[in-house]
Amino acid sequence: MSLLNDDQFSTLKLYCKIDQDFDDAVLNNLIDAAALGIARAIQSDSAPANFISDPRFLIALMKQVAVSYTHLMLPTKA
Questions:
Q1: What is the pLDDT averaged over residues 61-75?
Q2: DSSP code per residue over 11-78
């Protein structure tokens, strides 16, 4: 089960400027990892589901996923 509902996932994709679907699996992995990291930074034994209804958590999640996705897509130097 995904942490984000369909509207939240669409909003995150718009924020990241992603208009294709072929990276959705990678994006979901980035979402899960970022959400756990943010939740554990708030409280060490917490779960992302405890905070997902807080708009501040969702904004932090979108920002972290955008940075991770952008970094993942950067070309490497030969």
A1: 88
A2: HHHHHTT---STTHHHHHHHHHHHHHHHHHHH-TT--GGGTTTSHHHHHHHHHHHHHHHHHHHSPPP-
